[in-house]
Amino acid sequence: MSEPHIKAENLSLHIGKNRILNDISFDLSGNKIIGLLGRNSAGKTTLLSVLAAYHSPTIGTLKMNNRDIFEDASIVEQISFIKEESFEYEYDKAKKWLDDRGSFRANYDADYAAHLVKRFKIPMNKKVYNLSRGMKSALTVTLGLASRCPITIFDEAYLGMDAPAREIFYEEVLKDYMEHPRMIILSTHLISEMDSLFEEVLIIKEGSLLMQKNTEELLTEGVSVTGTTEKVDAWAAGKTILKEQTLGNTKSVMVFGSRTNAERQAAIESGLEFGPIALQDLFIHLTEEGADS
Ligand SMILES: Nc1ncnc2c1ncn2[C@@H]1O[C@H](COP(=O)(O)OP(=O)(O)OP(=O)(O)O)[C@@H](O)[C@H]1O
Predict the structure, then answer these.
(1) Could you read off the pLDDT of 75-91 as tens digits, one per residue?
(2) Ligand 1: which of 12, 44, 82, 209 to mutate, most ligand atoms within 8 Å of CB?
(3) Which CATH architecture has domain 218-286?
(4) In the chain, fewer beta carbons within 10 Å around the N or the C end?
């Protein structure tokens, strides 16, 4: 298959009277790791389930490699959608569950799955419903990674995993992506742990797309500036201020928006101090109630 290309145009999803996704357009192309960021209830799971063809858009279109995801079953085979499952009635042993599901996936690598099972220490002789929450997550993540689908979606797949298991997950995502490039989309609202994975991010807020950006570009647009209140106010006038703090005559602002190098240089020469803003801080302020990017 050629490199994946997903194009959403004016996509809206209504369920009953609820308008869950509103007029979303984006263009994702190539093998890369993409972060889908949004606060609780922003619509991450819903958007991903539309991408995985679980829901058809009420309005608008969603195409993969120029074909409608809902009209072509062969496309759905290229997509793996991993989310937290309760597995309340899953009486198979973990080994059978994984082997059965892997057998339906064209690129499934059983040796790699065995490697992940070992790293996560999943007790494969236990019945799935009896596994701990963290082990259920590890099992689904193992299926998602070892399936090596051209489009692999993890919807907050770390839920239930403890910190060491999450660390293994992040390491394996990166390592396996480098060896077998594909499009991997990870949704999260725990950004600080995962920010270094994302080459691109989609940020959604209240069912609408706030932005689609290359992560590096996004990070260069956010900057914290500190100096005397007078100088900081003069510099920040007309800019998008995400946050401000004053202590005595010293002021610090977080600003978002593109700047020229010359502008930055002049500000530094006038005595202002520039610092980076972490992706998580940018996310928090950009998605705040009333924030307008
Ligand atoms: N079947 C449904 N019927 C009605 N409303 C729904 C349905 N599914 C989701 N919603 C609503 O749509 C909104 C988005 O839900 P969604 O689960 O996509 O958010 P999320 O960003 O994944 O949230 P979280 O981070 O809390 O998991 C929520 O307000 C939710 O209550």
Answers:
(1) 888 999 999 989 999 99
(2) 44
(3) 2-Layer Sandwich (3.30)
(4) N
